[in-house]
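Side project, low priority. Logging it here so it doesn't get lost.
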Amino acid sequence: MTASPSFLGFPDRLADGRVPRAVIFGAGHGTTYPGQDSSGQALAADAIRAASQDDAPLLDRWDFDLGGPLFDNKPVCCVDAGDVLTTMHDNAGNRARIEAKTREVLALPAVPILLGGDDSVVIPFLAGFAGHGPIWILQIDAHIDWRDEVHGEGYGYSSPMRRASEMAHVAGMVQVGLRSVGSARIVEIEAARRYGSRFVTAREVHAQGVEAALRHIPEGARVVVTFDCDSLDPAIMPGVAARTPGGLTYTQAIDLIAGLGKRARIAGFDLVELYPPADIDGLSAITASRLLVNAIGAIVRQIG
């Protein structure tokens, strides 16, 4: 079997023993609900890597999203460590391995970048930041993901923000891109509001710009971004399992990432819920790849 190409052709380690600024790793499966199949989302990391290949020879070119080359005229400082070994329905084992990999990256120290997988991989990713807090969470998503349990399972894709609210190292969260219906019954809305989560709907971003979300992030805070692909409008991100009209535009998404990089410090980034079987001409994978480029560009440009 031929090994999958790395994201943008990045090495798995830097020459001369340098510590990377960021480490990419994939995790195909997290906590899959009983009777459900997460194999479609497990294709996402490699789809994103494949979509990045046309740009791999162009790392020194001017990137108009970033205002300069990806690495800001400095040496490559990001690596792709491949995938964490996960198995569908080995829920506890998957969570343990994802959390351990996150801790390993943070110990370097470097910024971990996780490619899912469904939204359940976010729970062990965030858990890995214990001892590296306090952190804030910027969730970019169509849904609030505050279900306590579904089918008796509390660690599935509908529960990451509920579980995050229980983590002592999480200081607060801003949830942006919300719209339509999904993982939010009245009881979940009330629980999130009691916790103090800040809701920012997609309509608010369309009307007021990304500052509607960024103003809730404390200046200088360490922030983990969890980016659900269904936050974007399905016209540009059709490859998701829950297409919902009225989503964010690509420009709004990259402005959120860039604005966060200037206001606070991106301590971690995950990109989840890409569903390649529903993609059209690879459009979603290309868009996801570009979002990841913008995240890396913002991280590289952070001071310190």
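Brief comment: The chain has one domain: 7-300.
Revisit when time allows.
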